[in-house]
Amino acid sequence: MLRVNLLPWRQRHCHRRYGFWRRWLFIGVASETALLLLWGWLLQQHEQRLAWRLSTLSAYQVALQAQVAKVNTLKLAYQQAEQLNQQNRQRFQRSLHYIQLLANVAQTMPDGLWATRLSLHNAELSLGGRGASYQDILALSAALPEDGTVSPVQLREVKQLASADLQFSLSARLSGQEEAS
Hints:
By secondary structure, this protein is an alpha+beta fold. It is built from two helices and four strands, in the order αββαββ.
């Protein structure tokens, strides 16, 4: 069927309306595309910032782990030094106790006696020597425990030597000393 346009101005008006709507449609699609591109670019920038922050935090984490490892190493070294210090302190106390014991033996030893053997083993004192009389040996065995460094002294043996001297052996435990290993 043939189409007859009775009003030419209607056709121009229709073309203008179609043009108007086509422009708005194009502007809408173009603006949505521009917004999507802008949004993608912003997301990419945000992702790059997050990746940079993640790498920075990872570097900090590695540095902190290294610091923790150093602290743990120093802590272990400190504990070992403390143990060594404690052992040295114990040795010093034992040595001081032994020195006090030797001073006590030297002060209480009567003039007529000579020490020929003195040994300390596992807090056990063993003293051997020579003397001229039984009274000096008994005086030594009675005088040693008076200052409290040794427990009661046991007179192990007394022998008469050919030179008319007496050979004696005493033993006692150090007081305040536990068994040493």
